[in-house]
Amino acid sequence: MTETRSVRPWYRRMTGHRRDEPHRSATTLELFFDLCFVVAVAQAATSLHHDVSEGRFGHAVGSYLMVFFAIWWSWMNFTWFASAYDTDDDVYRITTLVQISGALIIASGVPRAFAEGDFSTITYGYVVMRLAAVVHWLRAAIGDPDHRAAAIRYAIGITIVQGGWLLRLVLPEDWRVPSFVVLALADLLVPVIAERPGMTPWHPRHIVERYGLFTLIVLGEVVLATSVALQTGVDAGQHDLWSLAAADAVIVFALWWLYFDRPVEVSTRLSEALFWGYGHYLVFASVAAVGAGLAAAVDQERHLAHLSRTAVGYAVAVPVAVYLLTVWVLHVRRRERGARAAAFPATAGLVLLAPLGPAPVHLVAVLLVLLVASTAVARRPARPETAANAPEGPGT
Q1: DSSP states of 31-42 as a string?
Q2: Which of 152, 117, 150 is nearest to 134 (CA)?
């Protein structure tokens, strides 16, 4: 008997997915959402690259962390909501497209935020995205009585915090950073408070897939940014960049390998799930920052950067070290023991020393290759005689 598919409705009651739902995977709308978000990531990384090449490290780091928070937090909230409540009706699609429009508004405001410290456009785009999320949560409150308390808390919390972001635009310049910290913390507390009545039914495997896909997309942005910088140099007649290009490629390949080297799981306990989800801010931000640092290294090799080789080395080494430590905390620390667990933080420490050497980017690449090799060796299957002498487990 042939199964007939119903036509997708314009409106469907928003009930939650089951946590144990089989074959829960990313939808085309979610992938489109990610691709549009990477435009904002690319703008942030490009602006960071320009500031680093000009030697404005303090301004670069501060602006980058604030801009990237708006990008990451909006992406994260949609991702967890969609994991629980994706109805794929017309109203859901249109509301999500409004959120995507907010992401594009954020992207358009990134250059001005870096150049002039004007976060108004980014704030407007952020508020558009977050208020569209309120529409999602109100639909969930109506359609899912079991999690209505959580959905209402989300809607109220998000709305209140958005009012704070808009008020921030009229505060004196001296209050810009303190007010950002306060409002960012308020945003982070909304899920902590909202989920306490009973966690929304997000799907653990779906969340892991979504985070992995966004990591891939950000890594792709790094490849693009570095390739464009190298192409510009080659087009200008500088053909001595191939060694640096090889080191850049090795670094990106290693970052991919280390994230996807082992199966990833996210706990269904609220505190652990939030720690894992929030921790990925450093994963995504550091990966994009590595791309900015590698592009600055190309500028320095072409004598276009207003900073030393050591400073450029730290522009690459610091985000790489942050990435290694974050992946270690989120994915490695609980699974590995002894030397295996120590390899990631030890390599991060050596990476931070690499800029003191003669070829910082190349040294970082070598250290990452050694770390990848150590993880590959650690995963080798036991020898037959060792396996034969091993005690029997429950599944034997």
Answers
A1: HHHHHHHHHHHH
A2: 152
Q: What is the b/e burial string over 304-323, where b = at least 16 CB atoms within 10 angstroms of the residue's CB? A: ebebebebbbbbbbbbbbbb
DSSP-H helix ranges across the chain:
28-53, 57-85, 90-116, 120-143, 148-168, 176-194, 204-235, 242-260, 270-301, 309-327, 339-353, 360-378, 384-389
Taking the chain, what is the end-to-end CA distance rounded to the nearest angstrom? 41
Distances from the Cα of 132 to the Cαs of 42, 48, 126, 136, 162, in angstroms?
23, 29, 10, 7, 11
Under 8 Å CB-to-CB from 2, ≥6 apart: which residues? Answer: none
pTM: 0.88
Total residue length of the chain:
396
Domain 205-378 belongs in CATH node 2.30.30: no
pLDDT profile of the chain (396 residues), mean per 10: 57 81 84 91 90 84 92 93 91 95 93 88 94 95 92 96 94 90 96 88 92 93 82 69 86 94 86 93 95 87 80 93 95 75 91 92 95 79 46 40
Q: Evaluate whether 68 touches 284 at the Cβ level (below 8 Å).
A: yes
**Cα separation of 33 and 28, whole Å?**
8
The answer for residues whose C-beta is within 8 angstroms of residue 5's C-beta and 6 or more apart is none
Q: 338: how many CB neighbours lie within 10 A of its CB?
A: 8
Domain definitions of the chain by residue range: 28-202, 205-378
- The CA radius of gyration of the chain, in Å to the nearest whole number, is 23
Residue 146 per-residue DSSP state: G
Cβ neighbour number for residue 201 with a 10 Å cutoff: 18
